[in-house]
């Protein structure tokens, strides 16, 4: 059977018929800059720690793992204290297989039939999927033209839609935009008294801040995790996949009030986090500085690349670049057929991403060599598409 083909006689849920599995293309090309990974592999010391920790737990694999993953939760607490100066306890953190699973658990616990969730477009394309999979209605409020959050419209949408979950993303994907604390606090304050459709009086929405890329923010910018002790309605989702350079380990976590964590514990699969995953994550936390060693460099590279992009032109107009606090840049703004630029790049061995509003493309920061290849390929691709357009216009 062809990959993706679903026999018509299978009782697939009606709302899933003709849906496609989500995911960026996994294509074997020399330069992969499409899924916002950290391009630097774990150090030898990290690899040795992983080997050691897995060797230690291997003889116990006949037993289920610690379902409450207490040692790992302590490591999340220590990391959040060090990285974000957030003072939390183990009952305020919770881990899962990637922050994707954290957010799915949030939708399973707080969404569901009769419930709604609100995000601010353009944003991460998985949110509507969590909503679909949990029968939660998905709504969006538009961002400002510069991709910052339109706080007034967002609050207006919360008032009108009465969601149980408000999804905010900082830095946002695909735009890279950070959410200022003053804006976040306005939304948190409003949600403390807002109504939730389909719930009893006195029930209020939770606000989820997806901080998958937070370690790439400008130094000195606070994380929403520092507000967890102040706002019982806040959940801050984090991941080891991006700055922490551990995408293959599949570890995400959330910082929130103990009440919110207890709700997630109701919907989690039994033993959702394998002993191997827990051991691998702990090995990563044994070497936090190694894992984060390239973050400063990637941040500098982002600024240099943004500057370079702004100096390039396409069809006579300079490229636009959305200001980013992340490890990727959304650029272009007027690629009238962005698919053609993407294809030309791919032909030259550089994979980027067609995502976000029309006219834009996204690239994540690779190694210095990869970024040199990106610059070469983009210049050549833009010239090639301009040429093709000129020829088509002359015919
Ligand atoms: C905004 C955002 N949140 C969450 C994730 C999921 O990350 P993971 O499941 O690897 O933790 C991604 C992945 O690209 C993302 O861009």
UniProtKB/TrEMBL annotation:
Pathway: Amino-acid biosynthesis; L-histidine biosynthesis; L-histidine from 5-phospho-alpha-D-ribose 1-diphosphate: step 7/9. Its EC number is 2.6.1.9. Residues 33-378 form the Aminotransferase class I/classII large domain. The modification N6-(pyridoxal phosphate)lysine is found at residue 242. GO terms for molecular function: histidinol-phosphate transaminase activity; pyridoxal phosphate binding. Its cofactor is pyridoxal 5'-phosphate. The lineage of its organism: Bacteria, Bacillati, Actinomycetota, Actinomycetes, Bifidobacteriales. SUPFAM superfamilies: PLP-dependent transferases. This is Histidinol-phosphate aminotransferase. The keyword Transferase applies. It catalyses: L-histidinol phosphate + 2-oxoglutarate = 3-(imidazol-4-yl)-2-oxopropyl phosphate + L-glutamate. Belongs to the class-II pyridoxal-phosphate-dependent aminotransferase family. Histidinol-phosphate aminotransferase subfamily. The keyword Transferase applies. Homodimer. It comes from the Bacteria. GO terms for biological process: L-histidine biosynthetic process. InterPro entries: Aminotrans_II_pyridoxalP_BS (IPR001917), Aminotransferase_I/II_large (IPR004839), HisP_aminotrans (IPR005861), PyrdxlP-dep_Trfase (IPR015424), PyrdxlP-dep_Trfase_major (IPR015421), PyrdxlP-dep_Trfase_small (IPR015422). Keywords: Amino-acid biosynthesis, Aminotransferase, Histidine biosynthesis, Pyridoxal phosphate, Transferase. It holds the Pfam family Aminotran_1_2.
């Amino acid at each position: 059977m062809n990959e993706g083909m679903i026999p018509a006689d299978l009782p697939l849920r009606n709302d899933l018929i003709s849906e496609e599995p989500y995911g960026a293309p996994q294509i074997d090309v020399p330069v992969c800059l499409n899924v916002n990974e950290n391009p630097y592999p774990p150090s030898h010391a990290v690899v040795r720690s992983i080997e050691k920790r897995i060797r230690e737990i291997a003889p116990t694999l006949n037993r289920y793992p610690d379902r409450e993953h207490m040692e790992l939760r302590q490591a999340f607490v220590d990391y959040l204290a060090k990285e974000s100066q957030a003072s939390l306890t183990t009952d305020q953190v919770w881990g899962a297989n990637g922050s994707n699973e954290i957010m799915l658990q949030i939708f399973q616990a707080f969404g569901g039939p009769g419930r709604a969730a609100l995000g601010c477009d353009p944003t991460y394309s998985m949110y509507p999927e969590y909503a679909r999979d949990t029968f939660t209605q998905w709504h969006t409020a538009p961002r400002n033209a510069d991709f910052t959050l339109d706080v007034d419209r967002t609050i207006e949408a919360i008032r009108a839609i009465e969601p149980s979950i408000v999804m905010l993303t900082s830095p946002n994907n695909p735009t890279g935009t950070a959410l200022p604390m003053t804006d976040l606090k306005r939304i948190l304050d409003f949600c403390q008294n807002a109504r939730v459709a389909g719930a009893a009086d006195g029930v209020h929405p939770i606000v989820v801040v997806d901080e998958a890329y937070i370690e790439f923010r400008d130094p000195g910018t606070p994380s929403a995790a520092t507000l967890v002790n102040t706002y019982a309605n806040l959940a801050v989702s984090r991941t080891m996949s991006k700055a922490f350079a551990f995408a293959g380990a599949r570890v995400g976590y959330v910082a929130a009030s103990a009440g919110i964590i207890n709700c997630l514990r109701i919907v989690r699969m039994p033993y959702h986090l394998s002993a191997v995953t827990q051991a691998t994550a702990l090995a990563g936390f044994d070497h936090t500085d190694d894992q984060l060693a390239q973050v400063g460099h990637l941040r500098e590279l982002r600024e240099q690349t943004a500057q370079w992009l702004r100096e390039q032109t396409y069809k006579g107009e300079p490229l636009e670049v959305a200001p980013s606090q992340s490890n990727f840049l959304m650029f272009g703004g007027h690629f009238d057929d962005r698919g053609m630029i993407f294809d030309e790049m791919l032909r030259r061995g550089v994979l980027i991403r067609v995502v976000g509003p029309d006219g834009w493309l996204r690239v994540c920061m690779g190694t210095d060599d990869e970024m040199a290849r990106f610059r070469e390929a983009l210049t050549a691709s833009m010239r090639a598409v301009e040429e093709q357009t000129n020829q088509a216009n002359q015919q």
